[in-house]
Amino acid sequence: MATDSSNADTTGLEIAVIGMAGRFPGARDLEAFWRNLRDGVESIRFLEDADLEPSALDTAAVRSDPNYVKAAAVLEDADLFDAGYFGVTPKEAEVMDPQQRVFLECAVEALEHAGYDTERFKGRIGVYAGARTDTYVFNLFSNPAALGGLDPFEIGLGNDLAFLTTRVAHRLNLRGPAYSVHTACSTALVALHLAGQALLADECRMAVAGGVAINVPQNVGYLYQYGGIVSPDGHCRAFDAKAAGTIFGSGIGLVVLKRLEDALADGDTIHAVIKGSAINNDGAVKASFTAPSVQGQATVIKDALAAAEVSADSIHYVEAHGTGTALGDPIEVRALTKAFGNKTKGRRSIPIGSVKTNVGHLDAAAGSASLLKAILAMKHQQLPPSLHFESPNPQIDFDSGPFYVNTALQPWPRGRTPRRAGVSSFGIGGTNAHVILEEAPATPASSASRPWELLVLSARSHTALDTATARLAQHLESHPELSLSDVAHTLQVGRKAHSHRRVLVARDVQDAVRVLRMAEPQRVLTATHETSQRPVSFLFSDAGVGTPLESLYRSEPAFRAEVDACAKRLRSPLGLDLSAAMYPEDGRRPSLPEPLGTMARFVEQYALARLWMTWGLVPESVLGEGIGAWVAAALSGALPLEKALTMALLGDPSNQRRGLTGSGLKSPEMPLLSAATGAFVTDAEAMRPETWMDAASNTSRLDDALRELVKEPTRVVLTMGTPGALVERARALAGTTGTRAIRTSVADSLPALASVLSTLGQLWLDGVEVDWDDVNEDRGLRRVPLPTYPFERQRYWVAPAARAEPTQAVSPQAPQGKLADVADWFHVPAWHRTAPIALDRKALQERRCWVLFVDGLGVGEALARRLEEAGQDVVRVRQGGAFMRDAAKRYALDARLRGDYATLWKDLADQDLSPSVVVHLWSLGSSGEEPSSPELFRKVQDTGYYSLLHLGQALAKGDTSRPVRIEIVTDRVQDVAGEGTALPEKATLLGPCKVIPQEQEHVSTRCLDVVAPAPGSPAVEKLAERLLAELSQRSRDAVVAWRGSLRYAQTHSPLRLEPVGEAPTPLREKGVYLITGGLGGVGLMLAEHLARTLHARIALLGRTALPAPSEWDGYLATHPEDDAVARRILRVRELEQAGAQVMVVHADVADAAQLEAAVAKVEARFGALNGVLHCAGVTQGPSLYNPLTDIGRSESETQFGPKVHGTYALEQVLSRRSADFVLLFSSNAAVLGGLGYLTYASSNLFMDAFAQARAGRSGTRWVSASWDPWPEETKHTNVRTSMDQYAMTPAEGAEAVRRLVTLGVDGQVVVATGDLAQRWRLWIQRETSQPVAGARAAGKPRRSKTPFVAPGSELEKQLAALWQEVLGVDSVGLNDNFFDLGGHSLLATRVAGRLRTQFDLDIPLAKLFEAATVASLAKLVADHQAALEEAASQAALDELANLSDEEIEAELARRSR
After folding, report:
1. Does the structure show a pLDDT above 90 at 453?
2. Are the beta carbons of 770 and 617 closer than 8 angstroms?
3. pLDDT average, residue stretch 1366-1381
4. Over the stretch 959-1015, which tens digit does the pLDDT of each residue have?
5. Helix or strand run (H / E) with residue 920
6. Can 361 be counted among the known catalytic residues?
7. Are 1333 and 805 contacting, i.e. CB atoms less than 8 angstroms apart?
8. Helix axes 30-38, 366-380, angle to 10 degrees
9. DSSP helix/strand/coil, 657
10. pLDDT, mean over the chain
């Protein structure tokens, strides 16, 4: 064996570690990992009961066991994943083992850390890795309702460990071996060994190796058993006398490997060298299958030393397996001592340690953690401490061996040999691995830099690009020693090019940091790349380049070579060296006489074009004017360079024929446009000398040629000079339909090299393919570690269903029917004081996009500043007269126009800005100090109700896969403690607040009512600070109010209305009562009750006029009984027969003048008005049962008519009278929302708030009753819903009215026949996703009124399965009604969402209610699918009709790849 003294003593079998990535408990990256190791941090989390996550495996009994240890080694954000980066669908991501998701991201990070773009790398890349047993799958198996109908094969693809490496190979286009390894705890180092062998066998040229382990759930403990492998207290005490076990944790570590000689030749950064490695198995000669073996471990260590061809005494440190078990630690030390034998430096001379004392045992990733710890220790030349070692395990005799436990941070000096370490990893089952590491060879000095360098960055979104920019700036600031040339090179060749791109040109690292931090924003170019491999055409002018190119000549060998070649050809005819004349050594820019000036214009354009071509920009066509025509001809190959130079030199066309003597003319090798003909030069034209004699002087068809050049929108036109008349002409001819990219090679404002590099960057922004290797050819540049891709992760997680307990609870999802006692139906609004929401700084660490509809008080602006300081993306939207983008992330829109909101959302989507939180403050302070009035109502709707409606519509049409929170901040909506400041006019905004999230499952809302601060006052900043805290996290409280420092959440308190003794405000015998909407179902029902019980005098007011009573007999004689008017006449006569005096009054209740006249008629006939039952409302037509996407101003105003303006009119008319009461007939839609009820809920919310604002006043009592459904016969639709179970009978409804009117209540009263608290939790707090304790998705028996008919077709079976999943029943028949099976409105929303994703069917809610059986729904879906297929077929036929045979063949070939 060799005893080396330097890295020069190599065997040719060394493997270089050129890239690394890792995430460990307490460390999101390797920098944090090293800090924790260096500082002796134990990254074990000790849990409280509240911290414990639900588990599909743990039982309550296990967790209550006194030996249950509440400790975990947790990998942060293991539930997050950037699915879009890898082309993974949200559902696929959700059911994919998080180990595979994290492995995908870390593989990208490791390769980027190595400086490689897998798409650009020409060799084969292998993947060798393994994962621990997948425990996430238990979540999936326990919760089939969350699987979205995926079949077992699809679930297996995301969870089978066999696909760990092949998925990475597929997603990253890696074509080497993809090898999944499973040897338990030694998996990662075995994978490393196999990868090294593959590299030496030339099976691949680069390899990714390592392991991953994520234990699901993470925040759980474990049950300690004496003598077992796990620790009794959550600490791992490797080699210590108190060692009693380990603690398992989660983490990932990957390295990128190459053969050392290849890495050195390729200019890679080498972090460490693997001198040798070995693997083996213990076999049967040991105590048990799980026991370790001295002989097996000692042998594998000896084998590794032999493979490395180094002696044991050259090893300076051993990173041990070190599990902290009483049996394993002594065996490991004995094996080490046996392997090292007498070839060491003395007793207690070699430090050992175990990373498991820091982060726990990471199972399949344990070897990766050990390896990376050793590499980092080498790089930093320090040995970090091994934790929790106080006195040795009595079974370990450290005194007789060379090893000791390193318990403190100490320097790691270099000795007579390079720093070397051994790393062990031993698996349960006996597969052992050992690796010999050596420090990296000295880094070669970087090559000379260009005076300027081009930095390129890209990402999949605008926000990710900003993050990448900030990370690079921070990295360069932290590493000023870096060569900017190496940085630029790594960014160019070592990163995948994404659609959002940014470039800048900088002089040095310090300059780059300044520009990256936007100190000079004009030097940063940013664009969204739309098409790839855009073609380029070159344009040459007679004016030449137009700016000095001396710096380009000095710095770019390719440019200098072309200039010198032309100068050499011209030396004889000119009698001097043109290059020396153009670029004198003293740096002057001489004024060249003719013909030198002409030749300089030719040569510089030609050399510049050739430079672009060496950088991979080969033009698809060329065009020149004047002398530029000969440059173009020479470049195209039609005119030999020497002849083109001669033509330019001769100048006079009469002399040019001499220059064209002899052969040499030929057909162009690339399309060449002629300014003389305006067309491409034909082969015949190219062979005629006259073509070239005329080329420079004849520009009669230049415009035609330019039109041809710029007509393709995707083409990029690159001119060889500064901007000038020719460029402007080209841009004018391109107009709006031609190319949008006409670029100039150089600009006057920058030095030539900086200008050319800036143009190169601009071309890359445009989507032109650049050969970065050629750009940096022969510069000897290195790939250096730089910040990796800033993944934009979202949570994808399937939680386990609750475990079955001995007693099963009743489902909380479906309250069943009515309460028996009518007295229990009544509730009033109440406010429950809660603790203030604390600022969640961790939540704000994840970058999100916030859209703020900023108010005029300054609160929104103050909040925006705080969010930006927290690193959030903030888009500001102000009120304006039309949509406009004021600046980056600043907009104005017209609150009245629905289209402006849609335009805003599209513009954000075009920038890859996906809002996570929308804070709507336009209603804050919108009312000022104005009192309640119809005028105020009209004023505040645009910035309140309509603005939220339009916002919801924009969200419904946008990306519904991404969750969005809408936070509405307003004032004067709620009265919490009788302040009397609430305005019913603003209450309508609560309708969208409640209904939008019910109809759009991806949206959640919260309404915060605050006290508006004075503009510019300290209260503005204080309010913004509180909002930051409140909005930093979600809350179950949907309606919140702040008063002072107190926070309240809305709830409802029971109000038992039970008649006892004499009623305080009885109804009057033969009293006079006005019923608005009196000819409707509820109005007539109440009239009948009043007639029979009080012989009341009743005025029925409605918009529908009846014939005069004297004409009724004639009308009935000539019309059938089912005629609507005839039915009403008959009902009025029935009332009269019951003892009532009835008067039918025709008036629009929303018109105060008509209402005044109607009441006057009532008083004229009956002499008084004792009470009003305001039942008027629009219950038919497009304003009701409509999804929010179909609602406009017309539908809204239709509902506002009787409910809002009718209420105003009643107040005006009754203000001069002394009625006992007004009972406003509101709806529980105002309390609970409801699908299709947005406008209806909002108008009823106004009535509730109107009555509440008048509660406690003297005079007429105003009561608003938010009713559950009235009897079936009053409904105006045949649609069945889950609300039917709460419908009252006529007698119950009449009794409830009597109690409301006679028992002295006022304000808003909710009349809920069923459990209101539970329905509030279900429909407002949206607790629909919580599984039934102990129940499984298909556990409930079918409950239907129809005989069971099995679904027949595949589509019917799919829909039935969907219903089973959503409803949680064990079977669904073809004709079963959704609502009979326990369905309700929110579950219907789920069905609608699933239909949208599974069948691409966006079904109106009313249709869904009508198609309430599998049979009828299947017909709807089938019709929709047939329509889609027909449209697709027609589109395909239309497309084919416009394609040539060649284009069809090319497209078929593309699709088959």
Report:
1. yes
2. yes
3. 80
4. 888 899 999 999 999 999 888 899 999 999 999 999 999 888 889 999 999 999 999
5. strand 915-920
6. yes
7. yes
8. 70
9. helix
10. 89
Residue-wise over 25-46: b if at least 16 C-beta within 10 A, else e? bbbebbebbbebbbebbbbbbe
Residue 126: C-alpha distances to residues 204, 223, 349, 731 (Å): 6, 39, 39, 49
Q: How far apart are CA 1008 and CA 1041, in angstroms?
A: 5
CB atoms within 10 A of CB 588: 10
E-assigned strand segments in 625-733:
672-673, 716-719
- Residues across the chain: 1457
Structure tokens at 719: 């001119």
Give alpha helix (H) positions in 1046-1189.
1081-1094, 1112-1118, 1124-1137, 1152-1166
What's the sign of the alpha-carbon dihedral 1019, 1024, 1026, 1027? positive
Name the nearest CA neighbour of 450 among 779, 786, 783: 779
**For residue 149, what pLDDT is reported?**
72
Please, which residues have CB within 8 angstroms of residue 537's CB and are 6 or more apart in sequence?
Answer: 619, 620, 621, 622, 623, 709, 715, 716, 717, 718
Mean of pLDDT values over 442-453: 81
- First vs last Cα of the chain: how many Å apart? 52
Helix (H) / strand (E) element for 1007: namely: strand 1003-1010
For the chain, which domains are there?
Answer: 43-439 (3.40.47.10), 445-531+770-795 (3.30.70.3290), 536-768 (3.40.366.10), 837-1044 (3.40.50.720), 1072-1323 (3.40.50.720), 1354-1438 (1.10.1200.10)
What are the strands, taking DSSP E only, across 686-814? 716-719, 741-744, 794-795
Amino acid at site 626: G
State the Cα–Cα distance between residues 730 and 705, nearest whole angstrom: 10
The whole-angstrom separation of Cα 84 and Cα 461 is: 10
622: β partners = 538, 672
Is-contact 1079 1105, C-beta < 8 A?
no
- C-beta neighbour count of 622 within 10 angstroms: 27
Q: What share of the chain is helix, strand, coil (3-state, %, to 5)?
A: 40, 15, 40
Active site residue 1174: no
The answer to whether the CB of 1076 falls within 8 A of the CB of 1176 is: yes
Residue 405 pLDDT grade (very low, low, confident, very high; cuts 50, 70, 90): very high
Please compute Rg for the chain using Cα positions.
40
Q: Is the pLDDT of residue 682 over 60?
A: yes
Choice among 271, 361, 1089, 1384 that is catalytic = 361
In this predicted model, what pLDDT tens digit does every residue of 1158-1198 receive, in sequence order?
Answer: 999 999 999 999 999 999 998 777 777 778 888 999 999 99
CA geometry: angle 995, 1000, 1005, nearest 5 deg: 55
**Residue 439 exposed, middle or buried by CB count within 10 Å (0-12, 13-18, 19+):** buried
Catalytic residue among 185, 849, 993, 1175: 185
Q: Which among 321, 434, 920, 1052 is annotated as catalytic? A: 321
Between β-strands 1039-1043 and 1046-1054, what pairing exists: parallel, antiparallel or unpaired?
antiparallel
pLDDT tens-digit series, residues 1062-1100: 888 889 999 999 999 999 989 999 999 999 999 999 999
CB–CB of 423/304 below 8 Å?
no
Report whether pLDDT(1331) > 60: no
Instruction: Assess whether pLDDT exceeds 90 at residue 709.
Output: yes
Count CB atoms within 10 A of the CB of residue 141.
14
pLDDT tens readout for residues 842-859: 888 889 999 999 999 999
Tokens linked to 1386: 């929110």
How does residue 650 score in pLDDT terms, banded at 50, 70 and 90? Answer: confident
- φ, ψ of residue 1053 to 5 degrees: the values are -105, 140
193 catalytically annotated: no
Beta bridge partners of 68: 223
Q: Is the pLDDT of residue 59 over 50?
A: yes
Tell me which residue of 898, 849, 851 sits closest to 873, measured CA to CA. Answer: 849
What does the block give as tokens for 1052?
């409802």
